[in-house]
């Protein structure tokens, strides 16, 4: 198996552990505040991904979120049977000293929600979906930053 993987040119992103290019980059990023509840959740998930924050980071991560809930699947009484919650993130990695944009990308995730007769259950399902989507968005951003760091280190 190891020969097959090495033959195709694949390498682990974090080769070198905490001294790898992705780990070094993650440790040197400050995350700008992100408004709203979704922003708080995404920021917390990003901080969990990046680890301990540094005092004077070399880079600043700016994230703009778009959180939408769309109802569909009409019942006989014209109420919605399902919802789709979509969370989109446009993020930029900016060099703090110069303001130069190093990376500009986006990430998105969505979740389906069943609409039931209990409003409490619907709100709980929407909040639960947002929790999961926030972690998914943070993982996507972290993975793209790691790929960027690995590509620029070569």
Summarize the structure.
41% of the residues lie in helices and 32% in strands. It is of the alpha+beta class.
The number of distinct β-strands equals 4
Spatial strand order of the main sheet? 1-2-3-4
Give the overall shape: elongated
Architecture per CATH nomenclature, i.e. the level-2 architecture: 2-Layer Sandwich
Number of separate structural domains: 1
Give the low-pLDDT segments.
Answer: 13-18
The fold-level CATH name is Double Stranded RNA Binding Domain
Q: Report the span from N to C terminus.
A: 25 Å
Labels describing this entry:
4 helices; Double Stranded RNA Binding Domain; elongated; 4-stranded mixed β-sheet; 154 residues; alpha+beta
Structure description:
The chain is α+β, with helices and mostly antiparallel strands. The protein has one domain: Double Stranded RNA Binding Domain. It is built from 4 helices and 4 strands; from the N terminus they run ααβαβββα. Strands 1-2-3-4 form a 4-stranded mixed sheet. A hairpin with a 5-residue loop joins β2 and β3. α3 crosses α4. The protein is elongated. About 4% of the residues have low confidence.
Topology:
Blueprint (H helix, E strand, L loop, with lengths): L1 H6 L13 H7 L1 E3 L4 H15 L8 E16 L5 E16 L5 E14 L4 H35 L1
Parallel strand pairs: 1-2
Antiparallel strand pairs: 2-3, 3-4
Helix pairs in contact: 2-4, 3-4
């Amino acid at each position: 198996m190891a020969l097959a993987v090495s033959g195709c040119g694949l390498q682990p992103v974090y080769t070198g552990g905490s001294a790898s290019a992705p780990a070094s980059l993650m440790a040197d990023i400050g995350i700008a505040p992100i408004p709203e509840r979704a922003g708080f959740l995404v920021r917390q998930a990003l901080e969990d991904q990046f680890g301990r924050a540094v005092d004077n980071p070399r880079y600043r991560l700016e994230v703009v979120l778009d959180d939408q809930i769309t109802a569909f699947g009409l019942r006989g009484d014209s109420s919605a049977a399902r919802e789709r919650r979509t969370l989109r993130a446009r993020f930029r990695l900016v060099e703090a000293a110069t303001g130069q944009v190093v990376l500009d990308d986006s990430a998105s995730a969505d979740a389906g929600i069943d609409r039931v007769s209990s409003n409490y259950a619907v709100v709980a399902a929407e909040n639960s979906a947002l929790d999961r989507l926030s972690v998914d968005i943070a993982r996507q951003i972290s993975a793209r930053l790691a790929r960027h760091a690995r590509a620029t280190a070569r």
